[in-house]
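stage 2 :: seqdesign
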């Protein structure tokens, strides 16, 4: 009414009320009446903003990549920003110009400038894996940028969400990576098979070593048995030799005993013969008939035998002699 209006802002908006070109009010979350014909109101948002970005760069090996991410910032000095960009609002609180887009674009330009030198010196494969380094370059470039400091803003952080090559190069890299992965898989299979073969060789070698050790032990056992058998045979030989020597000694002793007995028997026989000879020597020259008579044997048979001997000795003188069987039978029975 009559050009007097009321306007209200929230606590996250810093307000500058210019009246006739001079600041009449300023602060956050203001609500006031103003006279529209001589008033100009600047409203600057104080909250943090997330600015998405995407830009293309060329790597050291002349390959295009797209860098996608976001930058977080907030306005730390609204009066400085108000001197650079136009954040004037109308009676309804709407911005007359869209200078917030200018602010965002300046930030993106500074971020791209900060990363371009790094990307231009980096090859494609390294650039794709350099998200952290790019974030650091963006953050350092924005923090140290004079143009950013003149805008009165504070950079909170920078995040790189994706680094992608061109579709053709992406397919080529996928193919190359796939081939490498396949080669690695083949290499892994080869190494696994080689490991299995090596393990089998070690097992076989261990088995052969075990068999060799067993054979060696068996050989030692056989040699020990042979040594024991040789020792037993030697002991048996010694025992047999001792027995033979003992038998020989016994036989020698028996021989000596027999010889001694023979000598003794001979001596005894000679002694007996000498005794008999000495005893019979007186009877040597005596007639046997006399000896028979001296014997004084009264046995009729003996006497008959002597008679028959006498007859036999004088058979040439006997002309005829008859001896009846009855006589012989009678003599024999008696």
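stage 2 :: out
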């Amino acid at each position: 009414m009559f050009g007097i209006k009321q306007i209200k802002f929230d606590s996250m908006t810093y307000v500058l009320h210019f009246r006739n070109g001079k600041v009449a009010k300023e602060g956050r979350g203001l609500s006031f009446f103003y006279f529209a014909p001589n008033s100009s109101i600047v409203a600057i948002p104080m909250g943090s903003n997330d600015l998405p970005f995407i830009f293309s760069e060329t790597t050291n090996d002349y390959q295009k990549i797209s860098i996608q991410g976001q930058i977080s910032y907030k306005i730390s000095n609204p009066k400085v920003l108000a001197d650079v960009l136009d954040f004037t609002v109308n009676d309804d609180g709407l911005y007359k110009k869209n200078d917030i887009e200018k602010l965002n674009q300046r930030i993106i330009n500074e971020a791209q400038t900060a990363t371009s030198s790094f990307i231009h010196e980096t090859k494609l494969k390294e650039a794709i894996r350099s998200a952290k380094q790019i974030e650091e370059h963006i953050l350092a470039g924005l923090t140290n940028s004079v143009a950013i400091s003149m805008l009165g803003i504070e950079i909170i952080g920078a995040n790189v969400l994706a680094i992608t090559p061109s579709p053709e190069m992406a397919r080529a890299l996928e193919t190359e990576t796939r081939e490498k992965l396949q080669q690695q898989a083949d290499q892994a299979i080869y190494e696994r098979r080689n490991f299995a073969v090596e393990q089998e060789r070690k097992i076989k070698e261990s088995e052969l070593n075990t068999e060799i050790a067993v054979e060696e032990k068996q050989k030692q056992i056989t040699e020990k048995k042979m040594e024991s058998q040789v020792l037993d045979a030697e002991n048996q030989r010694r025992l047999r030799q001792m027995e033979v020597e003992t038998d020989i000694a016994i036989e020698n002793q028996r021989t000596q005993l027999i010889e001694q007995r023979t000598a003794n028997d001979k001596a005894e026989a000679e002694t007996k013969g000498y005794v008999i000879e000495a005893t019979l020597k007186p009877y040597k020259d005596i007639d046997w008939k006399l000896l028979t008579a001296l014997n004084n044997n009264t046995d009729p048979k003996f006497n008959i035998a002597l008679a028959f001997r006498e007859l036999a000795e004088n058979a040439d003188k006997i002309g005829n002699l008859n001896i009846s069987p009855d006589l012989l039978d009678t003599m024999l029975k008696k």
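stage 3 :: structure notes
- Residues 167-280 form the longest helix (114 residues).
- The chain has a mean pLDDT of 84.
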